[in-house]
């Protein structure tokens, strides 16, 4: 009986410790793929001013992982250009290479050409399996934000 009294605290300690040591049971979120639809925001501030302007439009984005290709459609008449090209994912970064961007601007992140934003360059992204959010900031006066939901 005396031995059992000394063994109870040890067994209790092992039981409590093992219940606190959990593995990473969270499921791995896949890379974004498929068709997405939602809002694009162009946030800008003119040099020397403090007022921030936001322009919005609805766009669609298609990501095909097998060919590493993408295409942008939707309301591309004013703020965002329709485009297509190749993309790649590295951790929380996603990079786009828009085929319609001229070679002289190929190294430019998030260019605006003829008054329209292009999905081109490197973006930080968050994806939970149904919502894809991407953002890039250029200097202190321009940001591109994509807030998209998976539609299939």
Q: Count of helical segments? A: 1
What order do the helices and strands follow?
Answer: HEEEEEEEEEE
What is the residue-averaged pLDDT?
Answer: 86
CATH topology: Porin
Q: Which stretches of 5+ consecutive residues score pLDDT under 50? A: none
Beta-strand residue percentage: over 45%
Shape: globular
Distance between the termini: 65 Å
What is the helix fraction of residues, given as a range? Answer: 10-25%
Q: Can you count the beta strands?
A: 10
Report the biggest beta sheet as strand number plus sense, adding barrel if it closes. 8 strands, antiparallel, barrel
Q: Whole-number radius of gyration?
A: 24 Å
Q: Please identify, by name, the CATH architecture.
A: Beta Barrel
Structural class: mainly beta
Quaternary structure state of the chains depicted: single chain
Instruction: Give, in spatial order, the strands making up the sheet with the most strands.
Output: 1-2-3-4-5-8-9-10
What features would you describe in this structure?
- The protein has a single domain (34-150), classed as Porin.
- The strands form two sheets. An eight-stranded antiparallel β-barrel has the order 1-2-3-4-5-8-9-10. The chain has a two-stranded antiparallel ribbon with strand order 6-7.
- The mean pLDDT is 86.
- The N and C termini lie far apart (65 Å).
- It is 12% helix and 48% strand.
- The longest helix has 19 residues, at 2-20.
- It has one helix at residues 2-20; strands spanning 34-45, 52-64, 69-74, 83-90, 93-98, 112-113, 116-117, 121-127, 131-138, 142-150.
- It has 152 residues and is mainly β.
- It contains one helix and ten strands; from the N terminus they run αββββββββββ.
- It comes from Mucilaginibacter achroorhodeus.
- Keywords: Signal.
- Residues 1-22 form the signal peptide.
- This is Lipocalin-like domain-containing protein.
């Amino acid at each position: 009986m005396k031995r059992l009294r000394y063994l109870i605290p040890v067994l209790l300690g092992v039981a409590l410790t093992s219940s606190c040591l959990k593995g990473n049971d969270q499921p791995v979120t896949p890379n974004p793929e498929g068709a997405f639809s939602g809002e694009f925001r162009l946030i800008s501030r003119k040099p020397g001013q403090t007022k921030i302007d936001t322009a919005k439009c609805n766009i669609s984005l298609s990501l095909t992982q097998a060919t590493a290709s993408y295409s942008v459609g939707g309301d591309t008449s004013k703020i965002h250009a329709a485009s297509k090209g190749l993309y790649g994912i590295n951790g929380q970064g996603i990079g786009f290479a828009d085929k319609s961007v001229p070679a002289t601007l190929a190294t430019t992140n998030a260019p605006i050409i003829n008054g329209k934003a292009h999905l081109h360059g490197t973006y930080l992204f968050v994806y939970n399996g149904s919502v894809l959010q991407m953002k890039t900031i250029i200097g202190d006066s321009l940001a591109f934000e994509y807030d998209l939901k998976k539609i299939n």
